[in-house]
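Box S1 | Example of a co-folding query
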Amino acid sequence: MDRDRRADDAADHWMRLLEALECDCAGCDGTGWTLNAQWREWQQRATELVAVAHAARRAHELRPAQVPGGIDAEPAIVAVVERAIADHMRSRPAEPEETVCDACRGTGRQLTPAGHLFTDLLARHGFVRQW
Ligand SMILES: [Zn+2]
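Box S1 (continued) | Returned holo structure for zinc ion
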């Protein structure tokens, strides 16, 4: 019984130590993947265009009624923005949307300061492989 508890305590100790040596990669938030820069710009532009389209529609809906019973044509700005969105959708980047994170080589993990100290110690004794 005591031996089992000591083994569990030792395992917990080692788990805590290992957890202190690495953390989620800051370059990819631990996913191992990063969004291609061209895709990031494309998505940002798409978000902006959608926001402009919403604002134009909202402005159109909120304007005072014009001619009762008259034809309620969409304002030209809405058509222009929708055309810009359609053009933007056709101009998606050709590259893959995500690539393996350069910082962590896709592992999603990076060494903490304590982890660097530990790997330096291992390297001094020849136990760490060089990338
Ligand atoms: Zn990463």
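The helical segments are 2-21, 37-62, 76-90, 113-124. Residues 27-106 form one domain.
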